[in-house]
Amino acid sequence: MYAAANHYAKLIKTKATELGFDFCGVAKADFLADEAPRLETWLKNGMHGQMNYMANHFDKRLDPRLLVDDAKSVITVLLNYYPEQTLPEGDDDFKVSKYAYGTDYHFVIKEKLTNLLTYIHEEIGEVGGRAFVDSAPVMDKAWAKRAGLGWVGKHTNLINREIGSFFFIGELILDLELEADGPITDYCGTCTRCIDACPTDAIVGPYVVDGSKCISYFTIELKDAIPTDVRGQFDNWIFGCDICQDVCPWNRFAKPNKTSAFDPHPDLAAFTKTDWEEITEEVFREIFRRSAVKRTKLDGLKRNIAFNQPT
């Protein structure tokens, strides 16, 4: 049994690399006992803001066996999205999170995971399972940590020693027994750069982010007007925010991604502040046709741009 579990895990990891994933690890499908009290406290303190979906399916979020019958293994993959060239981020430029430069990662990773699942069926046989990319209550970072792909930093993003933290996470939950990897050490040490750099003080303590105070929350998730008490603190971010990752020393190891789908639309690189301020529905649809920026819709983007204007 062990030999088969070991063999299958190696097969799957090799194929994951062939499909373009940067890292692949395996964890035993089990109850996330450590995360349960932390998630409960986070929700009770209202740190999810208007992200009501975070409070849904609490039990499923903590136990993959409630998502896939007889689940035995959680395969986690990482896909680097760090760009070869960042968009202009000067004092007079509007800023978009690097993860949203190109094609929405949901499409890219789902296709690769579907191909990986097909390969498993072809090479191993009848295996029950599902692919997940933010499409269900799965605690991505917890599973990546359990699979030894990194540790959760003080900014609550997963950090990998080889490529930093600019990557997407996806999973396959299978009813197949695989040899599990073990977690690695936390290498944040005494560093507090992410905490010190957050302009809205969203990182309320090491390893705790109040989501309702995060610039990414305000510019993407919040559908109401942005509270006036945070005006002047956004540093021109109009979709998402990379500050806590940009200042992280581990991201000196970030390498340009090899996924052409993540390249920004050609017109985006030349966008000026005036272009953003005068963006039309037609331009928005063309440039962000398959981009995560579509989530905020044009009205939301215009709200964010106006909020960053001096009063």
UniProtKB/TrEMBL annotation:
Subcellular localization: Cytoplasm
Pfam families, alphabetized: Fer4_16, QueG_DUF1730
Keyword annotations of the record: 4Fe-4S, Cobalamin, Cobalt, Cytoplasm, Iron, Iron-sulfur, Metal-binding, Oxidoreductase, Queuosine biosynthesis, tRNA processing
InterPro entries given in the database record: 4Fe4S_Fe-S-bd, 4Fe4S_Fe_S_CS, QueG, QueG_DUF1730
Domain 4Fe-4S ferredoxin-type: 176-208
HAMAP family, A to Z: QueG
Similarity annotation: Belongs to the QueG family.
The protein's name: Epoxyqueuosine reductase
Source species of the chain: Spirosoma flavum
